[in-house]
Recover the amino acids of this structure.
C-alpha cells in the first residue's frame, strides 16, 4: 500500500493500474470508467487525467495506463461502493495528503521545536562546510581555461610530478614509451591532453599538457580511489551556529 500515490511531474498522482490493484478490479474496467468520465468533464479532463503507456513486466508489451491527480481519483472513486471501497478511499486520501505535504516541504521535515530547528541549522551548515573544499577545487579548475603541466596538477595533490606520473601509471591511466607519457586507449579520445613538439637544445621534444576536461577526468578517477586534492583534506571540526562556536 506504500505506492498508492507517487510523484510525477511535481504532482501527487496515482494510476489506473494501481487503482485496479487496490480495489481488486480489472484494469480494463478502470480504464473504461475513466473514459466514461471524459464525456462529462471534457473541458477539464486534461487537468485531472494524463494518458501514458507502461511495459508489462512479463510479456514486455506496451499497454495503456492513465495517471490521475487527487481530483481525478475522487471523481473516479465516486462510483466505487462497499465497506472495503470506503476503507481504500481513506487510504488514498491519507496517501495523497502525505505526498502533497512531501512536495510542499521539498521532502524535508519542518522543525516544530527550537531544538529541532537548531539541529537542522547545524546539519545544513555542516553539509555546506563539507562541500566547500570540493566546490572550491572545481571552481579553480573551471576558472582556468589554459593547459596545465603535470607538475602543477601534482602540487594540488601534494605530490611531485614523478610521484604523480607513477600514480597514474599504477592506476592504468597512462604509460611511458620512449620517454613520453601516453594515455591508455580508453582515455585517448577523451580530449584530456594536448601534445606539441618543440625544439629544445636542438632536439625535438614532445610536451604534453592537461586540458580542463582532463583535470576534471583525473579528479573523478582519483576520487574513486579515495585520492583527493589537498584542499579537500581539510579537517573541518567546528560548526558555527548563530555566530557562536
Amino acid at each position: 500500500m506504500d505506492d498508492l500515490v507517487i510523484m510525477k511531474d511535481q504532482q501527487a498522482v496515482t494510476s489506473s493500474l494501481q487503482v485496479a490493484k487496490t480495489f481488486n478490479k480489472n484494469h480494463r474496467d478502470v480504464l473504461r470508467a475513466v473514459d466514461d468520465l471524459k464525456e462529462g468533464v471534457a473541458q477539464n479532463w486534461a487537468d485531472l487525467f494524463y494518458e501514458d503507456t507502461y511495459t508489462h513486466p512479463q510479456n514486455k508489451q506496451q499497454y495503456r495506463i492513465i495517471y490521475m491527480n487527487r481530483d481525478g481519483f475522487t471523481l473516479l472513486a465516486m462510483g466505487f461502493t462497499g465497506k472495503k471501497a470506503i476503507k481504500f478511499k481513506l487510504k488514498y486520501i491519507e496517501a495523497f495528503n502525505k505526498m502533497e505535504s512531501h512536495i510542499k516541504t521539498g521532502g524535508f521535515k519542518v522543525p516544530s521545536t527550537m531544538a529541532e530547528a537548531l539541529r537542522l541549522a547545524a546539519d545544513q551548515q555542516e553539509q555546506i562546510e563539507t562541500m566547500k573544499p570540493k566546490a572550491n577545487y572545481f571552481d579553480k579548475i573551471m576558472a582556468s581555461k589554459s593547459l596545465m603541466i603535470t607538475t602543477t596538477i601534482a602540487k594540488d595533490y601534494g605530490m611531485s610530478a614523478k610521484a604523480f606520473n607513477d600514480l597514474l601509471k599504477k592506476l592504468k591511466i597512462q604509460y611511458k614509451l620512449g620517454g613520453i607519457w601516453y594515455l591508455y586507449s580508453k582515455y585517448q579520445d577523451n580530449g584530456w591532453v594536448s601534445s606539441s613538439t618543440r625544439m629544445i637544445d636542438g632536439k625535438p621534444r614532445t610536451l604534453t599538457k592537461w586540458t580542463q576536461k582532463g583535470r576534471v577526468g583525473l579528479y573523478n578517477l582519483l576520487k574513486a580511489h579515495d585520492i583527493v586534492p589537498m584542499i579537500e583534506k581539510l579537517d573541518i571540526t567546528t560548526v558555527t551556529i548563530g555566530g557562536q562556536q
Observations:
- The chain is about 50% helix and 20% strand.
